[in-house]
Amino acid sequence: MGWLSRCCYQLVLLQLFLLHFSLTHSKLCSNDQASPLLQFKQLFTDTSNYSARYMEHWKEDTDCCSWNGVTCDDMGKGHVTGLHLSGGYLNGTIPSNATLFLLPYLQVLNLSSNHDLKGSFPEANWSNPLQILDVSFTSFSGRLPDSIGNLKSLTHLDVSCTKFSGRLPDSIGNLKSLTHLDVSCFSFSGRLPDSIGNLKSLTHLDVSASRFLGRLPDSIGNLKSLTHLDVSVSKFSGRLPDSIGNLKSLTHFYVSDTSFSGRLPDSIGNLKSLTHLYVYYTSFSGRLPDSIGNLKSLTQLDLQNCKFIGSVPASIGTNRVEWSERQQSKGVLIYVRACDA
Fold it and tell me: Which of 106, 151, 273, 320 is least buried, going by the fewest C-beta atoms within 10 A?
């Protein structure tokens, strides 16, 4: 066989291979994966709506793995693993029984910053490998169901600035893999459940600007991986638990604009990693504990409009405090305006 014949033969084989590949791989996404997404699309049928235009290429005869906002596994099996529709101007209502929530391989569901998007979560039978669930800055409403506790793979849960109401369910404590929890921005009420202390992988907890009330549970001290804790602008009251001193990884602690009262616990001095401490507009009283001088990593301390008396411990600032807008001392920016010195 001459070299020309061999080249033609190899070219034919290549064409047959490419044809076979295109026929077998042109549509990675199976019907059981595409169907819930197409049902989701039907919730946004107004063609004048940006969300409908965004999903106009979501069509039955095309590969859903190539659709806007959809990601699939990298093993070539066509499993839908992510839905990324943040800031997509979605305007509609997602019912709690939407098949979207039950996609068996879904790991990321991000619907955040769709302010006019309404919806609620499944009340039961909700179980999939979700790792990231973000509906922040949407109009999702109702109560956060107990079924949220079934999502055992969840690492990131953000339901901030929504219209959820009622108590945070005890089942939240089942999410042992959770590292980031944001339930801030006037979404919930009642007491923060003791089960919050089960989330020992948590590094970021934000319950600020919420309607939570009562004491901060002692179990908060179990969250020893926590680096960021924000309980500010809330209705928490009573004494800050001594267990707060167990949070030795904490770098940022925001407790401002709350109804906490009594003395700041001595255990605050155990937070050796703390760089930012904000306790302004609180009802804490008495002297600042001397143990606060142990906070060698502290760079900002805000005590404005507080009820503390006496002076900032010399070990972090100065024995004589001029209650001015701010002062820089030993590398610590101290805000102390209008305290009852």
Answer: 320
